[in-house]
Design a protein that fits this description.
By secondary structure, this protein is of the alpha/beta class. 35% of the residues lie in helices and 19% in strands. The protein has one domain (6-114, 155-220): P-loop containing nucleotide triphosphate hydrolases (Rossmann fold, 3-Layer(aba) Sandwich). One of its GO terms (cellular component) is plasma membrane. InterPro entries: AAA+_ATPase, ATPase_AAA_core, P-loop_NTPase, Rad50/SbcC_AAA, Siderophore_ABC-ATPase.
């Protein structure tokens, strides 16, 4: 069966422990109903910082059985005895999901935990007598791309939280090519949060804008990210002058 496998997630009010506690105090959850449907193999969520994009991805990842701090099923690469700014575990306890079928293979990528995850995978390979993937011997951006290429080969649910964080524009094009290969193969579902207009422009992706008022379909040209970038490209000097003058 082709992706998407995860069809819908929604918040079960009976499972919310404390409406005033994080993450349930976020405006996106202070609505009559929080529900997110997936009708495309690739779903891209955009929005300003602090509206809850990462938290939603963490919740979905934990619901799928992944480590909320980054990783895949059966992996716990981050030391949870230390403070980890990930609240997806709490959110996942209050989420329900509709799958067809339930696919829990895949990966949750968080830029913040990339180095911890890479060291974990290297050591796991050594422990089993395999050749380590050695993502960290390359530049930050090249390590990201090698990681994506190595981890995203098989059927699964892949969740990316701001994958562009270490990628130059040309490397973002390479990431887009990876998305196309995953999409054309038909066996990968991708859920991604990004601030990159280049990644938002992936053909056929469902683009959703997240605000405190909810999640709504949005066109690339309607996003604040695209509008600001367009204004900058039209006249960089004037744009910077006006922005710094506010």
């Amino acid at each position: 069966m082709r992706a998407p496998y995860l069809k819908r997630v929604w918040l079960d009010e009976t499972r919310v422990p404390d409406r005033n506690g994080y993450p349930f105090c976020l405006p996106i959850f202070n609505r009559d109903e929080f529900s997110l449907e997936f009708d495309s193999p690739i779903t891209i969520i955009v929005g300003e910082n602090g509206v809850g994009k990462s938290t939603i991805l963490e919740g979905i990842a934990a619901l799928a059985g992944y480590d909320e701090a980054g990783g895949g099923k059966g992996y716990m690469p981050v030391d949870h005895s230390r403070a980890v700014e990930a609240m997806g575990g709490e959110l996942s306890k209050a989420l329900r999901a509709s799958w067809l079928p339930k696919i829990t293979k895949g990966w949750f990528f968080r830029a913040e935990s990339f180095f911890s995850v890479s060291r974990y995978l290297d050591q796991a390979a050594v422990d089993t007598g395999e050749v380590p993937p050695d993502f960290l011997s390359h530049s930050h951006g090249e390590g990201f791309l090698r990681f994506f290429e190595e981890r995203c080969r098989h059927q699964g649910l892949y969740i990316f939280d701001e994958p562009e964080s270490a990628l130059s524009p040309s490397r973002q094009v390479e990431f887009l090519k990876l998305l196309r290969r995953m999409d054309e193969a038909g066996f990968s579902q991708v859920i991604m949060a990004t601030h990159s207009p280049m990644l938002m422009a992936y053909p056929g992706a469902r683009l959703l804008g997240l605000t405190k008022y909810g999640l709504e379909p949005i066109k690339l040209e309607e996003t604040q990210h695209f509008r600001l970038l367009r204004e900058f490209c039209l006249d960089p000097e004037l744009f910077i002058h006006m922005m710094l003058g506010d």
